[in-house]
Amino acid sequence: MSDDSTGVTTDNITYGDLASVSGAPLAQIRAEDRAHAQRGAQILAAALRAEGVECLFGYPGGANLEIFDCLAAFDIRCYRTEHEQGAIHAAQGYARATGRIGVCLATSGPGACNLVTGLADAHSDSTPVVAITGNVPSYLLGKNAFQEADIVGITRPITKASILVERVSEIPHAVRTGFALAISNRPGPVLIDLPKDIQQHVPRDPEGRYVPPRIPAVIDPPETAIGGIPEAQLKQCARMIAEAERPVIYAGGGVVSSGTEAQLVALAEKLGCPITTTVMGLGAVPSRHPLWLHVLGMHGSYTANVAVNEADLVIALGVRFDDRVTGNVNEFIKHGQIIHIDIDRNELNKNKVVTLGISADLCLALEQLVGAVKPGNYSAWRTRLEDLKNACPLVARERAGLDGPSAIALLSEMTGGDALVTVGVGQHQMWAMQHYAINRRRSFLSSSGFGTMGYGLPAAIGAKVGCPERMVIDIDGDGSLNMSIHELSTCHRYGIGVKIVCINNQWLGMVRQWQDMIYGGHRAESSLGDPMAVKAAGEQDIYPDFVTIAAGYRVQAERVTTRGDLAAAFARMLADPRQPYLVDVIVDREQNVYPMIPAGGSYKDIILEPAVER
To answer: Of 52, 108, 177, 469, whose CB neighbour count within 10 A is largest?
Structure first.
């Protein structure tokens, strides 16, 4: 059948059916076919439209100009970022905010290699992204041609698949397979590499007739579908839960990516069981829910960290037991039983040996669990945890001057916790996790597994493109923001109303904190201030000047140095959701992030915030 919206034919075909179709320049096609023949780049655009792609993020160059040339004709909006890494982070932000696949486009060589960090980031955080790269013509592959890189080989370890398209007839199948793979089972990134001649060629048969592109309506599943919990294991789960006296649910990014937040809350409420989440799991439980213990891990709440280690049963859902959560894994949940349910069977018993490991789709598994369990009586356990919350609350303590946690807490209050928040990496990231009250799903976008500085602003751009009705705020740090501040140009150029709150302490704050705690205060290369600045007595020099930089990109910005001016500045920033706006918040330079479990330590080693001067 024909799909009029894409100009392609949709068939039930196999890969082998097109083996006889070769590619050739338009001049080698029969004259009567040339007027309606589509080049490889056009076939690619049609295939993208067939997958529902309406926009992508990219940067043009010699090896992908064929693709850029035809995007508009197929109603695909391209947002040109200022760097390819910005393009893939924007695609990640789009995917994380919408649940749909994010798409980015880069040229060969350096352009493609600039996607590598983002691909690794997406792989670590299970983000569905399809990266399309142009490459040198196929007859130059392997010959060290200008701007050639074996991007397929480079990215195989950090993608679900890296696909080199070798024939123009393969394009529709490669796209359909890549998109199916990116979103199936555990989501992740896929790379599709198209040599330039493949983009230029027209599909023809041996007689020189044009062969219209055909997109397979059905393909063999790229991965075996994961089902629910087998009956015997479901009964074992129900029995273990029924016997527990101090259970805790430990939920991660798998809950968010599977869209099972409501089922998670239903399970917890039916049981009366407390819940903690990872950073990736933020938003799975509304911040005000009485069963939520907040985030656990290195900078998580004291209550959550104690709870999982005092629990006699931990129900781990869509988590990896990564080192930032477990610390010393041998001491983590040392005495309790563990049920671990994850769609990726490779995660079971990988980092932490568990009592019962189950590979299952959370969409099915949580429904099964809700039906299989009975309400518990955990009143003594709940009282114990409430006492811990009251004794060690995770709150922004009021200080004499302006500080990061209080600024973020005020922002949360002024937005009702309703914004879609992105973050960079560093102290501000942890303060945002602690003090911005996330109440909606897919509303906290963080580079959690890979820890990529510079992620926040481009991710916010992608999130705003995907969710134009949401208030999108990048809570960033001065070090992290400086790695991608050029993307303010993208905000201005396309009218993307992202708000940026820079928590500016003139340091690589987390690096400085570790240097003070571990390296005897030797602050090697962690200062971000201007060492050449000559300051008068009492003068505070701020470097770089983000307000002036923003003005250069024609983005409104202001600096705040006192607590009393902050609310008014935030109000001005939030007034027009259509306009990008930056508020540079100058905060205490010496403040640390607490609580903190030192790397390799256990919850028993947790460091709480010392008393502060008010």
So the answer is: 108
Report CA 442 to chain centroid distance, whole Å.
10
For 545, other C-beta atoms within 10 Å of its C-beta total: 15
Query: How big is the CA angle at 109 (ends 104 and 112), to the nearest 5 degrees?
Result: 20
For 507, the 3-state DSSP assignment is: strand
| 334 in catalytic set | no
The CATH architecture one would assign to domain 231-391 is 3-Layer(aba) Sandwich (3.40)
Query: CA 387 to CA 159: how far, in whole Å?
Result: 45
Considering the chain, tell me which residue range(s) the CATH 3.40.50.970 domain(s) occupy.
Answer: 2-216, 404-530+538-594
Catalytic hit among 84, 170, 347, 487: 84
Distance of CA 217 to the CA centre of its chain: 30
Higher pLDDT among residues 274 and 223, named by residue: 274
Q: By three-state DSSP, how is residue 189 classified?
A: coil
pLDDT in tens, 503-533: 999 999 999 999 999 999 999 999 999 988 8
Least confident of 17-31, 228-242, 428-442, 493-507: 17-31
Task: Give catalytic status of residue 321 as yes or no.
Answer: no
591 contacts: CB under 8 Å, gap ≥ 6? 399, 403, 404, 405, 427, 505, 509
Q: Are 489 and 500 in contact (CB under 8 A)?
A: no
Q: How many residues does the chain have?
A: 614
Please tell me which residue in 147, 200, 236, 556 is annotated as part of the active site.
Answer: 147
Between CA 248 and CA 313 the distance in angstroms is 6
Q: Which residues contact 98 (CB under 8 A, 6 or more apart)?
A: 442, 466, 467
Catalytic, 196? Answer: yes
CATH class of 404-530+538-594: alpha beta
Catalytic-residue membership of 179? no
HEC-encoded secondary structure of 231-275: HHHHHHHHHHHHHCCCEEEEECHHHHHHCCHHHHHHHHHHHCCCE
Which one is catalytic: 28, 146, 231, 386? 146
Q: What is the chain's Cα-based Rg?
A: 26
Whose structure tokens read 């007839």? 169
- Does the pLDDT at position 15 exceed 50? no
Q: Does the 2-216 domain belong in CATH 3.40.50.300?
A: no
Among the options 42, 74, 160, 196, which is catalytic? 196
Does an H or E element contain 69, and which?
Answer: helix 65-71
